Amino acid sequence: LSVSTTSIYVGLHDVFHVSQLRKFIPNPFRPVELETIDLKPDLTYQPDPVRIVDRDVKTLRNKEILIVKVEWEQSPDGEFTWELESEMAKNYPYLFSGKF
Question: Which SUPFAM superfamilies does the UniProt record give (predicted)?
């Protein structure tokens, strides 16, 4: 859009009606780049952690457990998991070099 026509659309919402959707038709001649993934013999995959986002203490009846919020490689944005800090420190010590 040009600058002159942009001011016309300032008050419009950026929504669309479902009737505007069309079925996706893939192009068989367009190459699709696939990532290589190292699979274990049992066909499972373990992604590597990227960084520790947060830290917390989970309190059970009379026990406190340290947990960390981990961002994993190739996970969608904003998707994290809570893991035991002791396990993460044992398996991935490089994540704790610049400890909170």
Answer: Chromo domain-like
What global pTM score does this model have?
A: 0.56
Decide: 84 and 65 in contact? Cβ < 8 Å.
yes
Q: Give the CATH fold of the 3-96 domain.
A: OB fold (Dihydrolipoamide Acetyltransferase, E2P) (2.40.50)
Strand-pair category, 80-84 with 63-72: antiparallel
Print burial letters for 44-62: b (CB count within 10 Å at least 16), e (below 16): eeeeebeebeeeeeeeeee
Collapsed DSSP state (helix, strand, coil) of residue 71 = strand
pLDDT digits (tens, 9 = 90+) for 52-70: 999 999 998 999 999 999 9
Enter the tokens of residue 38. Answer: 């190292």
